[in-house]
Design a protein that fits this description.
Layout: H1 5-16, H2 22-30, H3 37-50, E1 53-59, E2 62-67, H4 71-87, H5 91-100, H6 106-124
Antiparallel strand pairs: 1-2
């Protein structure tokens, strides 16, 4: 399933909450960027059509939705397009950026070292 950047922004709210409506999503997104309610409602409708969210009830007249897919469901399709868009298709460019950003803890570095050793060992077989 392919989702636009704005659809992914909206999905973040569904992943963070058990259930919510378009009005709540609009209120949350409006805190960081100016967007009309109708725009958010259109995105919510599209996400429902794509099967990314599903209706789970009502709160008065408002329809409540919840995520029908997890973030992990989208990762395999989202990562390659992200790498293409921001790093010209170079995975090493992404990795270099993450390492150069200086936000890796000692635990992160140890994990990466072990992961790379294991990956190399499995390729050598």
């Amino acid at each position: 399933m392919k989702l636009s950047n704005f659809e992914l922004d909206v999905m973040q709210h569904f992943w963070q909450q058990t259930q919510c409506g378009a009005k709540h999503i609009h209120q949350e997104i409006s805190l960081t960027k100016p967007v009309a309610y109708n725009t958010v409602k259109t995105i919510v409708d599209r996400l429902e059509e794509k099967g990314a969210i599903k209706r789970v009830g009502k709160d008065g007249r408002a329809i409540l939705y919840q995520a029908a897919i997890s973030q992990n469901d989208l990762t395999p399709s989202a990562v390659p397009s992200f790498i293409q868009r921001f790093f010209g298709g170079s995975a090493s460019g992404l990795i270099t950026h993450l390492i150069d950003d200086d936000k890796l803890s000692e635990k992160d570095i140890a994990y990466l070292e072990k992961y790379l050793q294991d990956k190399k060992a499995s390729k050598d077989k």
